[in-house]
C-alpha cells in the first residue's frame, strides 16, 4: 500500500548502521540485513580476545537499537547475490526488491592465499574469532601448568602475533599485560612472566600509517612491556607447531593473525572492478559505476582520498560514508543534487597498553598516558553514539577502568580438548 | 621436601570451593582440580540462558580466586578414576597421590535414560548449555520474523519447559519476560507477545519442595505472565519437531529440559552404594564408607537429613558440607574427633520473575516483591562470598537492576545454521 521507497542496507557495521540511523524516522522504508544479530564495536574486539571484556560489552542486538524506529526493519540473514538490473537482492531461495541498495558488507581476515594457515592462526574480525583466541590464550597457560615436558611448555608459552598494524600492536601489548601482570600470581608450576610474545612485521616499522617517531615510541614501549618486536621479517609458514619468521622457526601453540583483510563476494556480486583487496572502486558519490541507486561504503569500498591515497578502513571513515549516502538518497528523493563525498580525516590513533597510546592528528602528535586517555575518551564518545543510555556508559567505563581481565572464561564444548 | 599432607579436591563448585577456601592458608597442601577453568554461580545460570547476564558476570576463573593463597594449586583437567587403596587419583595417563580426597564433582542433566532427547532439549547445568539455550531462544524469534510459513512460525514461537522445579519455573518466567516485554517492540512481522510458553510438570504441583499455597501462588503468577502451566502431564517424547506432553503433541523448536539431574562416574570410581540419582551414600562425617580419608560432598552426595529426608542439592547445603569437611580434615591432622555433620536448613527460595518470588523459611512464608528483594539480597550475599571486591558487586547489582536483556548475542560458528 505504501508508495515509500525501499532502501536495503546489507551489513550492520559502522557504515551500515550509520545509513540506517540517519534514515530512521524519514519517509523511506529501511531494511537492514546482517548475517549476525549484533552490531560489533570492532575497535575493542581485541579486548575480548585478551579477556578484558565480555562480548556483550562491545556488541548489541541490531534490532534493539532500532526498536523504536518503525520505518526500520531488521533481518538476520545472509545475502548470496544481487540482481542489479532487476533491483533485487538474493538470499538463498528468497529475494527482496529495493529502490536503493547500500552494500556495507565489510572485510574479513585475509591470509593472502594461504587459507590453510587459518586453523593455526585465527584472525580477529568477529566475536567467534575473538572468543576462540581467548580460549587458546587461556588454555595455553593451563596446559603449560599441567605439562611435564619442557619443549611443550616452551611452545605453549610462545605467543606470536603476525602483523604490526594497530590490531597487531594492541594484541601484542594486551597479551604482554595478561602474561606479565594479570596472571602473574595465578600459577604454581609455571611463571606466566616467562611467556615470550613475538610481534612480527614484514615492513620496516610498526604502525605504517603513523609518523616514524610514533612508530619508534610504539616499538620501544612494547619492548619495555616484554614484547620481542621483529621488523622486516616475512612469515613464510604457519602450522599447529609454530611459525617460520624470517629464518627462525618459532615453536608456538598460539599464533594470531593480524596481517590483513580482504573484501569477499562483492566482485562476484557486482561484476565491477575491485582493487587488490577486493574493495569495489566507487564513483565520487560512493555509487557503483553504472548504478546510481547502488552504493558501496565502509571497508568494502575503495574510495579515493586526495591524489594518491584511499580512505582508510577505520570507523570514523565508515560512519562519514554512511551519513553521506543516507543524505544522498534523501537528496535523490527530493530531486536535489549532492556534492561528491569528501573524507575528513581526524587522525590516526592506536593503543599499545594501559596508559600507553599514540595519536597523530594530521601532524600534531601525542603519545603516552595523555594519548591513552584521549583514546579512551574517543572510544567512549563513539560508544555513546551506538547505545544511548548514559548509565550503560558509566558501567562500561567503570568496568574498563577497574576490572582487570574479568572475562577469563574458557567455554565451549571443546574447552578441554588437547592441542 | 614438604611433609605437609596433601588434600586433593575434585570439583570447583560451591562444595569444592568451600573446602579449598577454608583450607587456604592452613598447614596443608590443597590441589583443586576442575575440568573447567571457572567457578560458576549456578543459581543465576538461567539468566545467561535468557540473555539477562553475560557468562563472565556469573563465573570467575578458579585460579584467580586463589591467586594469593600459596598453599592452593589449581589444575584444569579431568579426573578419570581413583585408586582408593593406593591413594591416587587418575587423569588419563597421569596420576596424583593424596592424603585426603574430597569428591565434589556435582551433578549433570539427566534424561532418565532418554539420552536421545538431549539434542532437541538441552539442559541447563553449565555455561555452554546456557549459551546454547540463549542462541536457540534468540534464533527462534529471528527465524519466525523471516518465515513465510505459518506452521513453521508457530513451531518457532512455541517454547516448552519440562520440569516444574525452581529451574523450570525460573526459565518459564524469564522466557515470558523476554517475549512479552524485552522483545515486544523489536520485530516488524511477528509479535513476540504471541509466543506460547508451556511449563510441563509430571507431578501435581509446581515447586514440590514448597508448601501448597506458595506453589499455587507460583502457578497463578506464571499464568498472569502468560505461561501455560500443565500439571500432572508426562512428557513421553521429544524430537526436533516438538514434545509430546500428556495427550498433546506440541510442535516446538524450543524445548528446554529442567526435569532432573544425576551424578555421573562416582559409582564406577568408588564401587560403593549410590542412590537412584547416582549420589554416593556417605557416612555421618561425609566420608566414603570404608575410607575415612575420602569425602563426598555437595550434589554428588546422598546425605541423610532427619529421619526420612536427604540434604537438598542447593548451594547453602554444599557450602556447609565443604566447611564441615575442611574442619574434619584439620581435626584429623590435630588428632581430634569431630561431631557428625548436621545440616542446617535456612529455607527454600525460588524466583518467578522480576518482583515475584517465593520463600519458605521453615514454615515462615513470604511471596511477591518482598520475597523477590530478599532473593536478590541473598544472592548478592552469596556472590560477595566468592568474589571479594565490593566494587564488582556494585557493578553486578547495577547491571542486574538496570540492564534488561543486555546479553542478547547470537554467537558461535553455527550462528546462522537453519533449524
From TrEMBL, chains A, B:
Residue ranges occupied by any External alternative NADH-ubiquinone oxidoreductase-like C-terminal domain in the UniProt entry: 345-403
Stretches that traverse the bilayer: 372-398
Top EC class of this enzyme: oxidoreductase
Keywords for this protein: FAD, Flavoprotein, Membrane, NAD, Oxidoreductase, Transit peptide, Transmembrane, Transmembrane helix
Catalytic activity: a quinone + NADH + H(+) = a quinol + NAD(+)
Domain FAD/NAD(P)-binding, first and last residues per copy: 6-322
EC number: 1.6.5.9
Pfam families: NDH2_C (PF22366), Pyr_redox_2 (PF07992)
UniProt similarity note: Belongs to the NADH dehydrogenase family.
Protein name, per record: NADH:ubiquinone reductase (non-electrogenic)
Organism expressing this protein natively: Thalassospira indica
Amino acid at each position: 500500500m505504501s508508495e515509500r521507497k525501499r532502501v536495503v542496507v546489507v551489513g550492520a557495521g559502522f557504515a551500515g548502521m550509520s545509513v540506517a540511523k540517519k534514515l530512521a524516522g524519514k519517509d523511506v522504508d529501511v531494511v537492514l540485513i546482517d548475517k549476525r544479530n549484533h552490531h560489533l564495536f570492532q575497535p575493542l574486539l581485541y579486548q575480548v580476545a585478551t579477556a578484558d571484556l565480555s562480548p556483550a560489552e562491545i556488541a548489541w542486538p541490531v534490532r534493539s537499537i532500532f526498536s523504536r524506529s518503525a520505518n526500520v526493519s531488521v533481518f538476520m540473514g545472509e545475502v548470496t547475490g544481487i540482481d542489479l538490473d532487476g533491483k533485487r537482492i538474493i538470499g538463498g531461495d528468497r529475494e527482496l526488491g529495493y529502490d536503493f541498495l547500500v552494500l556495507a558488507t565489510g572485510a574479513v581476515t585475509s591470509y593472502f592465499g594461504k587459507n590453510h594457515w587459518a586453523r593455526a592462526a585465527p584472525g580477529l574480525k568477529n566475536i567467534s574469532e575473538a572468543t576462540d583466541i581467548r580460549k587458546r590464550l587461556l588454555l595455553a597457560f593451563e596446559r603449560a601448568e599441567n605439562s611435564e615436558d619442557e619443549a611443550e611448555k616452551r611452545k605453549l608459552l610462545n605467543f606470536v602475533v603476525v602483523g604490526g598494524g594497530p590490531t597487531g600492536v594492541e594484541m601484542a601489548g594486551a597479551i604482554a599485560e595478561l602474561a606479565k601482570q594479570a596472571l602473574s600470581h595465578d600459577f604454581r608450576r609455571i611463571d606466566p612472566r616467562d611467556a615470550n610474545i613475538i610481534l612480527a612485521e614484514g615492513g620496516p616499522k610498526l604502525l605504517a600509517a603513523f609518523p616514524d617517531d610514533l612508530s619508534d615510541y610504539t616499538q620501544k614501549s612494547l619492548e619495555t612491556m616484554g614484547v620481542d618486536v621483529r621488523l622486516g621479517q616475512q612469515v613464510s609458514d604457519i602450522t599447529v607447531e609454530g611459525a617460520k619468521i624470517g629464518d627462525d622457526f618459532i615453536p608456538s601453540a598460539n599464533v594470531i593473525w593480524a596481517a590483513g583483510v580482504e573484501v569477499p563476494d562483492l566482485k562476484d556480486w557486482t561484476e565491477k572492478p575491485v582493487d587488490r583487496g577486493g574493495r569495489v572502486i566507487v564513483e565520487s558519490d560512493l555509487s557503483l559505476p553504472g548504478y546510481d541507486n547502488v552504493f558501496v561504503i565502509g571497508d568494502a569500498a575503495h574510495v579515493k582520498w586526495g591524489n594518491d591515497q584511499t580512505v582508510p578502513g577505520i570507523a570514523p571513515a565508515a560512519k562519514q560514508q554512511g551519513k553521506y549516502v543516507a543524505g544522498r538518497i534523501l537528496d535523490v528523493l527530493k530531486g536535489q543534487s549532492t556534492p561528491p563525498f569528501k573524507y575528513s580525516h581526524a587522525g590516526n590513533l592506536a593503543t599499545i597498553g594501559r596508559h600507553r597510546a599514540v595519536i597523530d592528528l594530521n601532524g600534531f602528535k601525542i603519545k603516552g598516558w595523555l594519548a591513552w586517555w584521549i583514546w579512551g575518551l574517543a572510544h567512549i564518545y563513539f560508544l555513546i553514539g551506538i547505545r544511548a543510555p548514559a548509565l550503560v556508559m558509566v558501567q562500561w567505563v567503570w568496568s574498563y577502568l577497574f576490572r582487570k581481565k574479568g572475562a577469563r572464561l574458557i567455554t565451549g564444548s571443546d574447552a578441554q580438548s588437547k592441542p
